[in-house]
Design brief:
The chain has helices at 16-24, 64-73, 93-103, 142-146, 166-170, 181-192, 211-214, 228-233, 239-262, 266-273, 282-292, 295-304; strands at 3-9, 31-38, 55-59, 79-82, 88-89, 109-117, 123-125, 136-139, 160-163, 195-206. It has 313 residues and is an alpha/beta fold.
Length: 313
Amino acid sequence: MVFSIIIPVYNKSETIQSCVNSVLNQEFKDYELLVIDDGSTDDSIIKLKLPENVILLNKENGGVSSARNYGIINSKGEYICFLDADDYWEPEHLSTLYEMILLYPGEKIFSTSHRIKKPNGQIEWNNVLSAYDDSIILVDDLFKLWLHKKSKGIICSDTVCIKSEVFDEVGLFEEGVSQGEDTDMWLRIAAYYKVVLSKKWTATYRREFSDATKYYRNNYEWVFASREYDLVKDSRVPEKKRKNIVKYIDRYRMNNCRSMIFEGNRKKAKEYLKKVRYKADIRYIITLLCLICPDCIYKPLFHKVLGGMYADI
């Protein structure tokens, strides 16, 4: 079996059927589908219509990481894909991934592109790969690409495909984490492996139904940032990549520092900024200037110039 597809479900009665249908309508048929009910309290599972070959697993509520891990443990496919219960795939999603695997059979992490559907119906595209001539790209260092301003979110849960043996090597999703558990996993894997990316969008992330967007808050304790020391000391991670990992975590810290300043916690922002390692970076200088500026100057800049909480300067 080529693919195991894992859909974690918790109270998604509005969207789960269309999500499952988008998997059942795939052109490529060599897969198993595991729907993991993470202790739903609504009628998500009661109303769900599933063919006999779909595996429905029930567990006590433990969060999305716990549900994904439960699916991984019970999967049999050579490659594992994830799909959030409020999103959906285009019919060619799996066939596109299979084409990528055939082109790069020695690689272990793959991702197509996705589009974002906003609550007002507007569609947002991620065009970071548009500068490349080839439709399928092998990236040696995802961190170097991700440091590009427009590359934020290039991989998401709906598009990624991982060889199952990788989880034995890097571990499972971090449980008990409510934010950033997915990017932690993709970056953990990307620290050790090259990544195959496709320009073709095959998934739609529906922001109007996303709990992550609904309850967004600044993530000052991102679990991946806590792995910095171990990754930098790990000889299996190429030296140049280690440097980019630190720079990427530095950028995360500087974004958070500017948010702390806006929230009025300059003392904490000052302490937080001390954690940044590459202090010659232009972003560090900008953030330091933000720390010096009075609120009457900084707060208008925060949204109008710096881009607010989603800033990636």
